[in-house]
Amino acid sequence: MGLIRLLIIAALIYVVWRVLKNLLAAPRQAEAPPPKRPRQELMRKCAQCGVHVPDHEAFTHNGKHFCSQEHQRVYLEHHDQ
Asked: Mapped to the 3 state alphabet, what secondary structure does 8-70 carry?
């Protein structure tokens, strides 16, 4: 009878420990800052091929945007005359 009483007491201690652990952990999760959203960047459509490139990588000429200097050169050869 002594062993069963010891097992019941150990089980009760375990249950109380789990409940207290969950109660103490809940406020920490609520205080955590929300995950950062990825930075959104303006995309520019290449006037030559239509590929969208980030604004900081685009080449611009007279309001037209290009994905590379090669496409800018080809476009200007055929359209600026």
From this structure: HHHHHHHHHHHHHHHHHHHHHHHHCCCCCCCCCCCEEECCCCCCEEEHHHCEEECCEEECCHH
* Cα–Cα distances in angstroms (integers) from residue 11 to residues 4, 7, 15, 23, 26, in the given order: 10, 6, 6, 18, 23
User: pLDDT by residue for the chain (81 residues), tens digit each?
Assistant: 789 999 999 999 999 999 999 888 876 666 777 778 878 889 999 999 999 999 999 999 999 999 999 999 999 999 865
Residue keyed to tokens 């406020």:
27
Would you give the distance in Å from CA 38 to the centre of its chain?
4
Its pTM stands at 0.51
